[in-house]
Amino acid sequence: MAQKRPHVVIIGSGFGGLFAAQELKDADVDVTIVGKTVYHLFQPLLYQVATGILSPGEIAPSTREVLKGQRNAKVIMSEVTSIDVDARTVTAEALQHETTLHYDYLIVAAGAGQSYFGNDHFAVYAPGMKTIDDALELRARIFGAFEVAELSEDPAERERLMTFVVVGAGPTGVEMAGQIKDLATNTLKGNFRSIDSTQARVILIDGAPAVLGAFGDKLSSRAKAELERIGVEVILDALVTDVNSESVTYKRKDGSTERIGAVCKVWAAGVQASPLGATLGRQTGAEVDRAGRISVNPDLTLPGHPEIFVVGDMMSLDKLPGVAQVAIQGGQHAARAVASDLAGARDTSPFQYKDRGSMAVISKFGAIASIGKIKLTGFPAWLAWLFVHLINIVGFKHRVTTLMHWAIAFLSTGRAERTTTRQQLVGRLAVSQLGSQFQPTIGGVRLPLEQPYDPEAADRRTR
After folding, report:
1. Residues known to be catalytic
2. pTM to 2 decimal places
3. What are the DSSP calls for 227-253, one per residue?
4. Within 10 A of 417 (CB to CB), how many other CB atoms are there?
C-alpha cells in the first residue's frame, strides 16, 4: 500500500496563499487551498473596478485556472469555521457541506477585512474596498449618484448627490479620490443635460496629519499638492465621528465638529485581520493585537507549532506593512520551509522581507513612488506604477486586457466598465435590513451571503 504524501493545507487564495501553493509545485506533497472564493483577487486594483476602468475578471482570475497545470494542488471553495491545532484539522463549510481536512503543515493566509474602528454600522453607508462586492456596490453608488442628481430638481439634494467623501488618506483612499475626480471631470463631462459633472466635489478625510504619511514628508507633500491641483479637497487631522445616509461628521483637533452633506461615501481607513488569527491565538498562546494580527516567530511559525505558518495581513512581525509583497514573499518563505523539512533539513532562518517599494497613483499620468533610496514623482512614477502592477497581475490574457482598458482610460477620457445594476446598488443593504439570520435557499440548499464585515460575528463563527 502506497504511503500517503504529506498534506499542506493553505487557507486563503490571495497573494500569500497562491504564491505558497505555486512554490510547492515540485514538492512531494498534496496541497489543498481553502478559500471563501475560487478566484485570486488583486486587491490593490479594486478601486479601478469601482470607478469603471477594469472589470472584476481582470483582477480576479480563477484560482482553478491559475493552478490547473499543478497536479499536486487542489482548490476547495469553503469558509473555514474552525481550526484544531492539537488534532491538526481544519473544518470548513459551504452550501451546507462541511469538510474536515487533516494537515501535516498549515499555511494561514486568510487576509483582512475592513475596519471601522468599532463603528461597524458605518459599513451600510460607506462600503470598504476589500472585496469584489464592495467594488461593484461602490460603482453602482458612484454612477448612480450622478443619475439621481440628473433627475433631481432640489439644489440641496443635487449638492449632496454630487459630493463624494473618501475616508482614509492611505494609498487606497488617495487613488480612489483621484479616480472619482477624474471620472467626474473628464469621463462624464457632457454626458448629462441637467447637471455639470465637473462641479462634483470630492473630499478626502483622514485623522493623520499627512496624506500618504508612510512615503515621507517630501512625497507626502507632493501627493497632497497634486490632489488639490486636480480639485480634491483634503481635510487632515480630522476624525470621522458619524456616518449616515446623507452626511459625514468629523471632529478636528481643536474639538470643533463639521458635517458634510454627501450621499456617496467610501471607507478606506483601516483593516481588521481575519478572526482566524484570534482562533489560533487562543490555542497557541500567541499574542493578537487590536487589529487581529497574530504575533509569529521570526520564521513565520506560531509558538510551539513549527507546522503552522501565518503570512500576509494576518501576521504581526517587525511592523511589516500590509502590502502584497509581504504576503507574496511570506507565502514563498513558508513553502520553502515546508519543502526543506520534507528533505530532512528544516530551514528555520528568519523571514527577510525585501522591500520592492511603495507606489500610489494620484491623477492621470501622476503618481509617487518610493523604491529604496529612489523617490519618483509625476510621469516617471506613473510608469513605474504601471509596470509593477502589470507584472503582478496573474495570467497573460489578464495582463493584455488590463493594458487595453488602461489605454482607454488613460489615453482618452473613456471607461469601458460603466455598467451597473440595481442589485449591486441595494443588494447588501437589503440583506442587512433582513437581518443576520436571513439565509436564501435554492432548491433547499442554503446560499452563503457576503455581509458587511462584522468582526464580532466573524469571531463567533470560529469559536
Report:
1. 175
2. 0.90
3. HHHTTEEEE-SEEEEEE-SSEEEEEET
4. 20
